[in-house]
Amino acid sequence: MSNAASGALGFLYKSHIVAEPGFNRWRVPPASIAIHLCIGSVYAWSVFNPPLTRQLGVVAPAADDWSLSSVVWIFSVAIVFLGLSAAFAGKWLEDVGPRMVGVVAACCWGGGFMIGSLGIATHQLWLIYLGYGVIGGCGLGLGYVSPVSTLIRWFPDRRGMATGMAIMGFGGGAMIAAPVKGWLLNLYQKAPEYLGAHDAVATVVEGGRVFAETAAGKVEVVLATAAQAAPFGGDAGVYVVGTGNTGAAQTFLTLGIVYFVVMILASFLYRVPAVGWKPAGWEPKPVASGLVTQQNVHIDQALKTPQFWQLWIMLCFNVTAGIGVIGVAKTMMSEIFGTGLPLVVTASFASTYVLMISVFNMVGRFFWASTSDYIGRKATYMCFFVLGTALYLSIPYFASAVATNPALIYLIGFYAATMIIFSMYGGGFATIPAYLADMFGTMHVGGIHGRLLTAWATAGVLGPLAITSLRQLSVNNAISDLAARVDPAAFAEKFGAPLAQLQQLVAAKTVTIAKLMEIAPEGTIDPTPSLYNTTMYCMAALLVVAFFANLMMSPVKEHHHHDEAELRAVPVE
């Protein structure tokens, strides 16, 4: 036993949590599910997009408010550090065990929220990146890998089901977090100071910003519509920037405390099986497919095999295709269908859409991982890539169709397609540890899985980068096209500045597609529903590449295997 394991924190180490004979293995999954439910709330990040992008204006974005792209990148940074921390923590997990890793994850995830709360309150974006993105991201990675190898060893007879249980909670985290976050935001929010209706307050535009004269002097204001002001119990009109509260800072702080407590308690439920333990009456059976080995490949040796990098590409591209959409899910639903079907696609409907993403993400993890126990991991991933490609290609059709004919059938088609996509997105995460155990053996699967999660970190950059940059390109093109169609005099009257200042007004968020559509010639088709079409074509192309990586999968060559008994017998000098 190491000195650390026998020290003050020894009770956290693996040697102190070996299960006694007769221990019920079904007592372990609840711990992993509880931790994953906490860290899985990252999938409900899009709920924070609206309040963070109007933190100063509150009812509407102010000139100094953070842009959507800068806020989405916080989610990306968290995913990057999830992958990096999981890669570095793989070997450490095998040494210290899941309880120690779970406790550190609780400190990082809960603490990250608390630091992020400070960043929101002081309007320092870098503090949110540091807290939620970097420190919280490390908590994500540590919490994510802590149960995987443990449950695979507790359930060698049902690897797919075991990894489905281990990772199911991560997909379901947003199912709980989305409504809870919404409730907390509503609890803590406060409407800004109201000056009056649009026509009752004299305003002037300077440098793209809107100002109003008050008894206290000239103040910056935002002009809110009735829909924007309604959630705060206000009316359409002029509101003073910096006088309200979205409730985001207090929500972050509350969640940080709750997550820390739950994850600490769950970490103490972890137990590991004794060396040589196996379920009563179970014996390993050879599998006809040839892709399931009874041998073991060391962590470092696994990186030298083509199979590891094929699996890396498969996970990376499958995640890239889904993660960018998840990060802006609520915004995407509102933009594609909010204009054509405003009575159906309300703010509440969009929030429910985020919740259903979480439901299908969670159910897909258990369903697809369990299914892979029967049809094989390779066949399961073939379903992901073939069906996923077809579904991604269908989304631009639904979006373009609803722009010209706002029929409910297109919304139903879009909803069904994306839900199946998100079930396979979650299924890919839950099935990959079992695929790794099949290819490389169970001895080092926790560490190898950690290394493979660098693919998730890469996807955390590629997905949001693709969807935000391609969307912004589409937005810029749409605004330029609409501005060329509107009457210059109507533009000047609407925005209080000439058409020549278009770029300045766009940068200050004074000119938007929605506001341009108000003065566009009759018959002009709203380009908003088609803002994501190019992105979907790119996502489908990525899945085609991943399909061929899976198609060429073959067993690991024998020279990569090692005898674990001989390795343990080597004396340590």
SSE pattern: HHHHHHHEEEEHEHEHHHHHHHHHHHHEH
Query: How many E strands?
Result: 7
CATH superfamily of the largest domain: MFS general substrate transporter like domains
Q: How would a textbook summarize the main sheet?
A: 5 strands, antiparallel
Walk across the major sheet and give the strand order: 1-5-4-3-2
- Name the beta content range: 5-15%
Based on secondary structure, the structural category is mainly alpha
Roughly how much helix do the residues carry, as a percent range? 55-70%
User: In angstroms, what separates the terminal alpha carbons?
Assistant: 16 Å
Please render the helix and strand layout as text:
Layout: H1 29-39, H2 49-52, H3 68-96, H4 98-121, H5 125-145, H6 148-154, H7 159-188, E1 194-196, E2 203-206, E3 209-214, E4 217-224, H8 226-229, E5 237-240, H9 248-267, E6 296-297, H10 299-302, H11 306-327, H12 329-337, H13 347-375, H14 377-404, H15 408-440, H16 445-452, H17 454-485, H18 488-495, H19 502-507, H20 513-517, H21 533-551, E7 561-562, H22 564-569
Antiparallel strand pairs: 1-5, 2-3, 3-4, 4-5, 6-7
Could you explain how this protein is built, in words?
There is one protein chain. The chain has 573 residues and is mainly α. The chain has two domains: 14-190 and 245-275 and 295-486 and 521-557, Up-down Bundle (Growth Hormone, Chain: A), CATH 1.20.1250; 202-240, no CATH class. Helix content is 63%, strand content 5%. The protein contains 22 helices and seven strands. The chain has helices at residues 29-39, 49-52, 68-96, 98-121, 125-145, 148-154, 159-188, 226-229, 248-267, 299-302, 306-327, 329-337, 347-375, 377-404, 408-440, 445-452, 454-485, 488-495, 502-507, 513-517, 533-551, 564-569, and strands at 194-196, 203-206, 209-214, 217-224, 237-240, 296-297, 561-562. Helix 3 (68-96) packs antiparallel against helix 4 and helix 7 (159-188) runs antiparallel to helix 13. The two termini are 16 Å apart.
